[in-house]
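Colleagues,

For the teaching module next term, I've prepared a clean inverse folding example: a structure given as C-alpha cells, and then the sequence designed for it. I'd like students to try predicting residues themselves before seeing the answer, so please don't circulate the second half yet.
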C-alpha cells in the first residue's frame, strides 16, 4: 500500500490561491447578492453624530448592503442591533480613537449567522478572498459586549478601570467617565442571567487597534456578560491584543477560533464563572520580527485584579473548559498561565509547541493541590517544560506525579498526536506546510466525559476536534477558506482517518464498514 504524506499533498497545492469568486459568494446560500454589487452604506448614517448611539431602538444591518464602519457605535441600553446572515462590515482605521462596536449594559446584538452564511467584520482593505495578510493586525477596534453579571472588580484595585462601586468597572480599552463603558453591577444586584444577545457564526478580523498608550481592544471583549447570552462559532483573526477576553461574568461559549493574534488566545479575569468547549487557537509562523511577532499564552487564567479582592468578598474565576487545542510557534510562551487565585477546570485539551505547559504561581499551586483548580487528561505535545511552578521547572517529585499519573496529563513528542508543523509565506497567506489539528481515528482518548448539564457535548476525547472526523472549522472560517489545515483542505480521497497518510489503517477502516451507509 502506497503512503501519501501530507508534504506531498501540500506541495501539489502550494501554488493554489483563493480566488475572488469566494469573496463574491459570501452569503449567496441565504439569498445575499455578490459583495461587489451590494449597496455601500456608511454606518455613521445610522448613529447620532454626537453620542454615537444608534438612531433607532431597533437597527438592522442587511446583507444587500456592504457597510463601512466609519465611526464608533454604541448599542445603548434598550437598543437592539440585528445583523443578517451573510452581512459584511468593513471598518476604517482610526488610530487613537479606534472605530468599534460597543454593546452596553442593557443593549443587545443579534448577529445570528450560519455555517453557509457567516457574518464578517473586517478591515476596509480586506478583499475577502483570503489573501489579506494575517500580519495586518490592529486595523480597527473590534466588538465589545458589556453586561450586568457578577464581577469581582473592586474599588480597592486602585487602577484606571476601578470605579467607586464594588462590582462595577470601566472596560479595558475605553475611557473612564462614560457610563456606557461600565460593566458588572453593584454587589448584591448582579443579573447573572443577563442576555446581551446572540453571536453565532461571526468572524472578527484584523482588529485590536490602539486607542491610547498601551491600550488595545481584544478581538471579542466580554465584560460582565451574563449566561443568557449565546456565543458559538465565533472566530478572531489577526487581532493586535487577545483573541477572547472575559472580564467577570457568567457567559459560556462553544466553537471558538483564535488565530494569528498578538496576545493570548483565551484570557479571563475578575471572577469569570462560565464554560467553554471546542476552542481552537493557532499562533501563526509568519513572524517577521518585532511588531510582526505574535502570540502569548494559550490560556491566561486570572482570578482577580488584586489580592485584596478576597478580603473584600470577591469570588475568584472558576470556569470549566473542555476540548481545546492550542498550537504555539517555535516553542514559545505558556500553554496555561495560571495566576491570581484562579480556580476552575481545564480538561481534555491539547497544547502543542509551547515553552511551558502548565505554569502556576505559588498561590495557584495551593488551590491546585486542594482540588479547586484542575488540569486533567490534557496532552502536552512538544512542550519544553510541561510543568513549572513559581518560575521553577518541575520534572519529578510529588507535584510532577500529581500532574501526570494522578491527573492523567500526557507529555508526548513532536507530532505524536497532531501535526503542528506549519509554514506560511507573505504576501497572500500562502501556505507551504499545513497543520492537521485533527487526531487520527482511535487516538486522543480520555477517561473523562464532560458534565451532562445541557451545555457540554459528550466529547470523550482530547482536543477541539473529534479524532478522524472533519473539523468544525470547515465552511465558515478564514482558516477553512485558505486551507490552513490539511484535514480541511488538502485531503486525500483515501485518507479515511484523516491522518495525512493513506495506509493499511485506512484500508481496514473502510473494510470494516464496507456495505454500510453514511447516515
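(Answer key — instructors only)
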Amino acid at each position: 500500500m502506497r503512503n501519501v504524506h501530507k508534504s506531498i499533498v501540500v506541495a501539489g497545492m502550494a501554488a493554489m490561491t483563493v480566488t475572488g469568486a469566494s469573496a463574491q459568494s459570501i452569503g449567496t446560500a441565504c439569498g445575499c447578492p455578490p459583495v461587489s454589487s451590494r449597496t455601500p452604506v456608511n454606518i455613521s448614517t445610522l448613529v447620532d453624530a454626537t453620542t454615537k448611539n444608534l438612531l433607532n431602538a431597533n437597527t438592522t444591518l442587511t446583507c444587500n448592503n456592504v457597510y463601512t464602519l466609519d465611526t464608533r457605535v454604541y448599542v445603548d441600553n434598550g437598543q437592539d442591533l440585528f445583523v443578517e446572515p451573510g452581512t459584511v462590515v468593513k471598518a476604517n482605521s482610526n488610530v487613537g480613537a479606534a472605530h468599534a462596536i460597543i454593546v452596553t449594559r442593557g443593549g443587545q446584538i443579534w448577529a445570528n449567522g450560519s455555517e453557509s452564511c457567516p457574518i464578517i467584520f473586517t478591515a476596509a482593505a480586506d478583499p475577502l478572498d483570503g489573501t489579506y495578510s494575517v500580519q495586518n493586525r490592529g486595523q480597527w477596534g473590534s466588538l465589545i459586549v458589556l453586561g450586568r453579571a457578577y464581577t469581582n472588580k473592586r474599588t480597592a484595585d486602585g487602577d484606571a478601570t476601578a470605579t467607586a462601586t464594588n462590582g462595577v468597572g470601566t472596560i479595558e480599552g475605553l475611557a473612564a467617565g462614560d457610563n456606557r463603558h461600565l460593566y458588572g453591577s453593584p454587589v448584591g444586584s448582579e443579573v447573572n442571567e443577563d442576555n446581551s444577545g446572540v453571536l453565532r457564526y461571526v468572524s472578527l478580523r484584523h482588529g485590536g487597534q490602539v486607542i491610547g498608550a498601551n491600550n488595545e481592544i481584544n478581538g471579542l471583549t466580554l465584560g460582565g456578560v451574563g449566561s443568557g447570552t449565546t456565543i458559538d462559532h465565533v472566530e478572531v483573526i489577526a487581532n493586535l491584543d487577545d483573541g477572547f477576553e472575559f472580564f467577570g461574568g457568567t457567559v459560556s461559549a462553544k466553537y471558538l477560533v483564535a488565530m494569528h493574534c498578538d496576545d493570548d488566545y483565551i484570557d479571563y479575569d475578575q471572577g469569570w464563572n462560565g464554560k467553554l468547549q471546542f476552542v481552537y487557537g493557532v499562533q501563526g509562523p509568519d513572524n517577521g520580527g518585532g511588531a510582526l511577532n505574535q502570540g502569548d499564552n494559550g490560556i491566561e487564567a486570572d482570578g482577580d485584579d488584586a489580592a485584596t479582592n478576597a478580603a473584600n468578598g470577591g469570588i475568584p474565576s472558576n470556569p470549566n473548559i473542555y476540548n481545546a487545542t492550542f498550537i504555539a510557534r517555535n516553542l514559545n510562551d505558556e500553554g496555561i498561565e495560571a495566576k491570581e487565585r484562579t480556580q476552575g477546570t481545564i480538561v481534555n485539551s491539547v497544547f502543542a509547541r509551547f515553552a511551558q505547559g502548565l505554569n502556576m504561581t505559588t498561590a495557584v499551586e495551593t488551590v491546585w493541590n486542594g482540588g479547586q483548580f484542575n488540569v486533567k487528561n490534557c496532552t502536552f505535545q512538544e512542550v519544553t517544560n510541561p510543568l513549572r511552578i513559581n518560575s521553577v521547572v518541575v520534572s519529578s517529585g510529588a507535584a510532577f506525579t500529581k500532574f501526570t499519573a494522578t491527573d492523567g496529563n500526557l507529555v508526548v513528542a513532536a507530532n505524536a498526536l497532531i501535526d503542528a508543523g506549519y509554514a506560511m509565506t507573505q504576501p497572500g497567506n500562502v501556505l507551504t506546510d499545513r497543520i492537521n489539528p485533527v487526531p487520527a481515528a482511535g487516538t486522543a482518548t480520555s477517561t473523562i466525559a464532560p458534565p451532562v448539564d445541557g451545555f457540554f457535548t459528550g466529547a470523550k476525547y482530547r482536543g477541539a476536534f473529534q479524532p478522524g472526523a472533519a473539523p468544525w472549522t470547515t465552511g465558515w472560517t478564514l482558516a477553512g477558506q485558505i486551507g490552513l489545515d490539511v484535514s480541511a483542505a488538502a485531503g486525500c480521497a483515501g485518507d479515511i482517518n484523516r491522518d495525512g497518510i493513506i495506509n493499511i489503517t485506512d484500508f481496514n477502516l473502510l473494510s470494516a464498514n464496507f456495505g454500510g451507509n453514511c447516515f
